[in-house]
Amino acid sequence: MDDHPHPRPPEPRPGPPQDSPDLWDTIDRLYGWLDAHNERAPQEALLLRMLKLSEEVGEVAQAVIGATGQNPRKGTTHTWDDVRAELCDVVVTAMVALRTLTPDTRTVLTEHLRRVSERSENHVRGGG
């Protein structure tokens, strides 16, 4: 198996298996679980949940450095599978953070993604 990223993105995969949980239901459950175990004041919990994103992004950086062997003292300590897993942690953490700010995460993210897509498509067509 090749541990290096491929220059082209992988082919799209088929949809999730029929028995897989809904993404947003899972995010709601994670949010509920975190809130149920929270012992901090609401504002402090909110800020710490946002800061958790920085921690996860740092773990992506650590995995990339480890996968490329950029630290001569340590050598290669991670694989690109580790990087992918850390990126997934960033996505999940961001989605839970968004859920912390609004119960309407699906609509907020869908609308934001639509705007980003429109800007990108306009740029490709020379409109911006």
Describe this structure in words.
With 128 residues, this protein is mostly helical. The chain has a domain at 46-124. The protein contains 4 helices and no strands. The chain has helices at residues 23-36, 42-68, 80-101, 105-124. The longest helix is centred in the middle third of the chain and has 27 residues, at 42-68.
Short synopsis of the structure:
Residues 1-11 have a biased composition (Basic and acidic residues). It is built from 4 helices and no strands.
Describe the secondary-structure layout.
Blueprint (H helix, E strand, L loop, with lengths): L22 H14 L5 H27 L11 H22 L3 H20 L4
**Low-pLDDT segments:** none
Q: Helical stretch count?
A: 4
Report the structural category.
mainly alpha
Strand content: under 5%
Q: What's the β-strand tally?
A: 0
Q: How does the major sheet shape up? A: none
Radius of gyration over C-alpha positions, nearest whole angstrom: 18 Å
Shape call: globular
Helix content: 55-70%
Whole-number average pLDDT?
88
Tell me the distance between the termini: 41 Å
Q: Secondary-structure element order, as H and E?
A: HHHH
